[in-house]
Design goal:
Elements: E1 2-8, E2 11-17, E3 57-58, E4 81-86, H1 96-99, E5 102-104, E6 109-111, H2 125-142, E7 146-149, H3 161-170, E8 175-182, E9 192-196, H4 207-221, E10 237-240, H5 244-247, E11 253-260, H6 264-271, H7 273-291
Parallel strand pairs: 4-7, 4-8, 8-11, 9-10
Antiparallel strand pairs: 1-2, 3-7, 5-6, 9-11
Helix pairs in contact: 2-7, 4-7
């Protein structure tokens, strides 16, 4: 309502104008949907030419969840920048010349990237990693985090492991989690978390906080349906000095191996959307615990 007053002939006149709109419905144009709202099952957008690595994908601010008369509380990860790295890529196998090119990881060389593994039924690790990364992005955005993905979709190749580490360094992220699944022996089960070894001149500044992040993630993953690995690592932890994504990182970083895709029980869990959501929630919990210390 707008109220207007004026004087005329010594008499005060009051006019009230009420604008009433009835029977109008609003709709959301697809162009206004934030990246965090992209459905998991949506077909991926075409990847641009990757002679240069793709621009990292960031979330928009998460939608408000409070009512109009409520005062919103602080979100636990508000202001935090987190990198989620979905391991491998869907077309790496079609770009072996590029992905097998050796790159410098600080204390040696490794291939730019690799194809990853797959289940006996043909479910690829690259696709699994992408699905869980999208779910994780949504879970983290709901907590207020600004999430950066290292690749745009699952329909391209790369980027190289050196570029994946560089993404987190460029955006000065608070932490990074690289999402993977293992291709171990068929009779081996379970998840494990990889953290960087202490390498002078490379990881000496991030080894300790990365171990803290690994402990938070291991504890959080223990709440899911996936058991701790019984064929690799020690009590769910593996310390590595040969991974470029860790060696070249200037921020706390870990790798999560969600399970063994070559084991029938693990593979069934990993393909299940409900379990993928469990993993996403576990990653979000672990990052909240780590960053709230």
């Amino acid at each position: 309502m707008q109220l207007f007053t004026h004087r005329f002939g010594g008499v005060l006149a009051v006019a009230a104008v009420m604008l009433i709109a009835a029977g109008c419905a609003t709709s959301t144009d697809a162009s206004t949907v934030s990246p965090g709202d992209v459905p998991i099952t949506a077909a991926p957008a075409p990847l641009p030419s990757i002679t240069e690595p793709p621009v990292p994908v960031t979330t928009s601010e998460p939608p408000a969840t409070h009512g109009p008369s409520e005062t919103p509380g602080p979100l636990p990860l508000a202001g935090r920048v987190i990198v989620i790295d979905p391991g491998h890529n869907g077309r790496n196998a079609q770009h072996l010349e590029e992905t097998t090119k050796l790159v410098d990881i600080g204390n040696g060389t490794k291939p730019c990237n690799s194809t990853g593994t797959a289940s006996a039924g043909g479910f690829s690790e690259a696709e699994l990693n992408w699905q869980v990364a999208l779910r994780t992005r949504e879970a983290l955005a709901a907590l207020g985090a600004n999430v950066v993905l290292t690749r745009l979709d699952n329909d391209g190749w790369g980027p190289c492991i050196t570029e994946r580490a560089a993404v987190g360094n460029r955006v000065e992220a608070d932490a990074a989690v690289s999402i993977h699944a293992d291709g171990g022996p068929a009779d081996g089960r379970g998840f494990h978390v990889i953290h960087p070894a202490f390498v002078p001149g490379l990881t000496d500044d991030i080894a300790a906080p990365s171990l803290q992040l690994a402990r938070s993630l291991r504890a959080s993953m223990a709440e899911t349906a996936m058991p701790v690995a019984d064929y690799i690592a020690v009590d769910g932890f593996s310390e590595r000095s040969d991974l470029g994504g860790l060696n070249l990182s200037d921020i706390p970083a870990v790798f999560l191996e969600m399970g063994n895709m070559k084991n029938a029980e693990d593979a069934a869990l990993l393909a299940d959307a409900g379990f993928q959501q469990e993993v996403a929630a576990a990653i979000a919990r672990a990052l909240s615990t780590f960053l709230e210390r």
